[in-house]
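Handover notes (outgoing to incoming on-call)

Open items:
1. RNA polymerase sigma-70 factor: sequence verified, structure written out, both below. Nothing else pending on this one.
2. Nothing else urgent.
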Amino acid sequence: MKIIRECPDRVYLARLQADDSQAFDLLFDQYAPELCRFAHSYLKSHADAADAVQECFLKLWERRHSFDEGIIFKAYLYKSAYHAVLKQLRRQRHWVFEEYGGETLIDEASPSRVVEYQELEQFYQVAMAQLPARRRQIFVLNRQEGLSYALIAEQLNISVKCVENQMTQALKFLRAHFQAHGMSLALILLAGQVL
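RNA polymerase sigma-70 factor structure tokens:
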């Protein structure tokens, strides 16, 4: 059984910036299993999930010299995994393979659909930017990184009730924002399982 030692993020950062591959291995051992579960919940493939997580850690290693002192590796890795999952899903949706009469027909996603998706994502990002910073952080941790209210409360050192309140306010604002523009928040959240 492998014992994983947890270090403060500042210690990890200093070691990574000193090109300490052992610190990288410790981070990988600590976070890779839960990131794989997170990615698998969207991709439904162990191989694709593993690829997404490897991509996250590759980027972590490549960017190790550019991180700020205040980095929270768990948050960074979840955000990176989320983007890697989106990239995989876009790649999967880009081509539709259909068996027809012994031939494989390939139909590229229509350019109008791609533009619609990009516009929807931009609209979502604009709405998110209007949330107060703490509320946005809580919303992202819950809806994009999949953390429970209890984990968010523990990570941010606030009460679960505070997290619930912030989520209620965030959803209320987003719902009103999208309705004011003739869109359904449910549609936005389902369009990419949170963009």
